């Protein structure tokens, strides 16, 4: 009993020592720290930013852009935030609010909308000055969508990141991997993710000697065509069947029955096209189909008027 009590007191004392050491560490680190100054190990050397992109989910893709859930993974070093572990109870890392330190101004260049998804925004700081920041976002990026071959279309959307105010002489952006991390990607019902390769681009302009760096991910998606084809094939077969049935009805049936059947087929055909893009080949086919049924309707009315 006594030994258990002594162990409990020792644990509490150790915890109090660690908390006191953390508090002292934070106070000392930020005593003369200025979060507006870019960290540098050497004068005239850029700050190295290692960038990663984790694609979690595709929410929507249409003419307004590509909407997705993604985590950014940024790693860099700030030599001003180093400490000797032996002086602070062997503390190896601490968690801090991101607004306490300098952050790289990495932005999505082709952004439509950005929403931060976490209640907190913290970084992990290690004793050697290494920093990891993983902010989660809902991002909407511009994307040119070609729906000609809908629903067999494949789309490629570029997601381009870079510094908003720094050139390559100030921030050196590098890729963690040659593609986006999709290990935790949630399967999308409408699109299949083919791949998300990444490329580092270094561009020089005639006006300026410094390079401008961007990291571009190509999100390649293939539409799952089966649901659309099942729906539209069934509608097309039904429409044609109704239209043909109206033409082969025996002559003793009421003439209006033929017309009503074809009108019903036209209405069904129009309802089945509400989810199909106007510029697709499939829409052209269905419009041709509707034109043929209109011709059948006109022919039927002419024949009925002549016979009657």
Notable characteristics:
8-stranded mixed beta sheet; 4 helices; single chain; 5-stranded antiparallel beta sheet; alpha+beta
Characterization of the model:
It contains four helices and 13 strands. Residues 5-13 have low confidence and may be disordered. The strands form two sheets. Strands 1, 2, 3, 5, 6, 7, 8 and 10 form an eight-stranded mixed β-sheet that branches. Strands 4, 9, 11, 12 and 13 form a five-stranded antiparallel β-sheet that branches. It has helices spanning 2-29, 226-248, 255-271, 281-307, and strands at residues 47-62, 65-77, 93-97, 106-108, 111-116, 122-126, 130-133, 136-141, 154-163, 171-175, 191-195, 198-203, 212-223. Strand 6 and strand 7 form a beta hairpin. The protein has 308 residues and is an alpha+beta fold. The protein starts with a helix and ends with a helix.
Order of helices and strands: HEEEEEEEEEEEEEHHH
What structural class is derived from the secondary structure elements? Answer: alpha+beta
**Fraction of residues in helices?**
25-40%
* Helix count from the secondary structure assignment: 4
Average of the residue pLDDT scores = 84
* Estimated share of beta-strand residues: 25-35%
Report the strand count. Answer: 13
From the N-terminal CA to the C-terminal CA, the straight-line distance is: 110 Å
Write down the overall geometry.
elongated
Output the radius of gyration: 32 Å
> Which spans have pLDDT < 50 for at least 5 consecutive residues?
5-13
Report the biggest beta sheet as strand number plus sense, adding barrel if it closes.
8 strands, mixed
